[in-house]
Amino acid sequence: MQEPRHSTQTVPEPSRWIAVFSLTMGVFSLVMAEFLPASLLTPMAESLAISEGQAGQAGQAVTVTAIVALLSGLLVTAVTQRLDRRHVLLAFSVLMIAANLTVAFAPHLAWLLLGRVLLGVALGGFWALSTATVMRLVAEHDVPRALSVIFTGVPIATISAAALGSYLGDVIGWRNVFLLATALSVATLVLQYVTLPRMTPERPTPLGTLVSVLKRPGMGAGIVAIVLVFCGHFAFFTYVRPFLEGVSGMGINQLSSTLLAFGVANFVGTLAAGFLLERSLRLTLLLMPLVMGVLGWMLATLGGFSMGTDAIMVAVWGFAFGAVPVAWSTWITRVVPDEAESGGGLIVASIQLAIALGAAVGGVMFDISGVLGVCATAGTLLLAAAALILVAVRTRPEASVDRDAIAATCQ
User: Distance (Å, rounded) from C-alpha 38 to C-alpha 59?
Assistant: First the structure.
């Protein structure tokens, strides 16, 4: 019989949900910091005296963060296996503060990239532990809803980084924008310090645990499906602006409105995910990539017929994708509840890999067949993911996992 992975604690219900909110703040702060360079690239390059030929290197700041986050997500469980999870999460918030300060006061490119490396460690580690932490904060039936609350930080931060980052960068300068991000990180640290309970692991999780988790029935298919879904999404999303400008014929006002509609729909989809998952995990996992896949082919074949129709399809895509990260995080809590931290690390690594692959695949197809080819390719990847989910992805743990241990872990 397998022992429960973590000790059960008596934490008042309101305090648990405030702790969940503190994790949402962590997500918002991390994602905001991750994507700020994309909206501040030009003033950052000028301030750091980077030549025109080197400007592309500054643009790699987001890529550097993603690569380090991939490694951090895989290694964090093993490296911190004997440490209280409260302390580890607080350490990631401290690391986020250090990362933002390093970038804000960076005298040249090397310091900027150092700050992004620190942020990548915090980002990957935090994401890897977030699902398992939620399982210990709320009751089992509240896990999908709590995860949907946490993931609302992603669309809000993405929109804020793009809109507020550009605007504030012109008003107060890019370094002060990162100082504001630092202040937000400090507020996050304080809230987490006050609300997160002690969460001491009861047994170690060596690096080999990742391999053993991956070998469990259905896990390999699930990881491949995750890569296909996120690769398809980011292949399309990377080139959504060229599609809306070149195919739909949108001007700057229509483009801004459509992207805002995408962000709002994504936020709503993230909130709705909790209710959908309470009814059927398998249906939610299957339906979202299926809808996105169909939309990809509709955009490839019918795109440009009507500006309004294109905008609606892009918004619906945003809604469907909003439920995707929540659904797969919930999937981990169901199929490997006894190893949710290692499972979370595998998901983080898979998503970061898919982001890089999606941009690369989209770029190749864009060169070969234009933006319509990108839409068709994205649609094909997403439909392949839906087919794999239908035939090979499990939504229940293997029979050998002790049900009493699962119940104890999720209290």
Answer: 7
